[in-house]
Amino acid sequence: MRVAIGSDHAGFHLKNYLRDRLKNEGHEVIDVGANTPESSDYPDYAARVGRLVVSGEAERGVLVCGTGAGICIAANKIPGVRAAAVSEPVTARLARLHNDANIICLGERIVGPELAADIVRVFLETPFSEGERHIRRIRKVADLENNC
Ligand code: RB5
């Protein structure tokens, strides 16, 4: 799968760890930075990954900051992004099945590398359930983007 990945400084080490693991597993990974652990701003990386996913240049996105919260809030400002901040695999699975989440957001200060890798694996493996009620709700979410 083609995966875009990005982080601020607070997610830098976990982002690099996940990037290398995904590459080793055979995924094509687009790393949008940060490229150093110097202080940086999470909206910049949320925007890069979000645009790659919405344009179709990447099939899914992975974002990391200190908590997963800020970078998720920023990513969800981009129309077409459905980003979920997740700290365990059950929510990762349900965010795919029910919400068709296209970006997963993690906190390096919250989850360890093995748990994070498991969350990302579940996120990439799980399809959208395409149940009628889920499609209806996702359309309503998209309507919010257009009508607010
Ligand atoms: C940076 O210190 C930190 O605030 C940021 O990575 C993120 O956790 C914000 O939500």
Write the layout of secondary structure elements.
Elements: E1 2-7, H1 12-24, E2 28-31, H2 42-55, E3 60-65, H3 69-75, E4 83-85, H4 89-97, E5 103-107, H5 113-125, H6 132-147
Helix pairs in contact: 1-5, 2-3, 4-5
**What's the number of structural domains?**
1
Largest sheet entry: 5 strands, parallel
What binds here, in terms of ligands, is: D-ribose
Compute the number of strand runs. Answer: 5
Strand order of the largest sheet: 2-1-3-5-4
Overall, the morphology is globular
Question: Percentage of helical residues?
Answer: 40-55%
Order of helices and strands: EHEHEHEHEHH
Rg, Å, rounded: 14 Å
CATH class: Alpha Beta
- What value does the average pLDDT take? 98
CATH homologous superfamily placement = Sugar-phosphate isomerase, RpiB/LacA/LacB
Q: What fraction of the residues are assigned to beta strands by DSSP?
A: 15-25%
Residue runs with pLDDT of under 50 for 5 or more positions = none
**What structural class is derived from the secondary structure elements?**
alpha/beta
- Supply the CATH architecture: 3-Layer(aba) Sandwich
CATH topology (fold) name: Ribose 5-phosphate Isomerase B, Chain: A
How many helical stretches? 6
Q: What is the rounded distance between the termini?
A: 33 Å
Walk me through the structure.
With 148 residues, the protein is α/β, with parallel strands linked by helices. It has a single domain (2-146), classed as 3-Layer(aba) Sandwich (Ribose 5-phosphate Isomerase B, Chain: A). The chain is built from 6 helices and 5 strands; from the N terminus they run βαβαβαβαβαα. The protein has helices at 12-24, 42-55, 69-75, 89-97, 113-125, 132-147; strands at residues 2-7, 28-31, 60-65, 83-85, 103-107. Strand 1, helix 1 (12-24) and strand 2 (28-31) form a beta-alpha-beta unit. Helix 1 crosses helix 5. D-ribose (RB5) binds at residues 8, 10, 42, 65-67, 69-70.
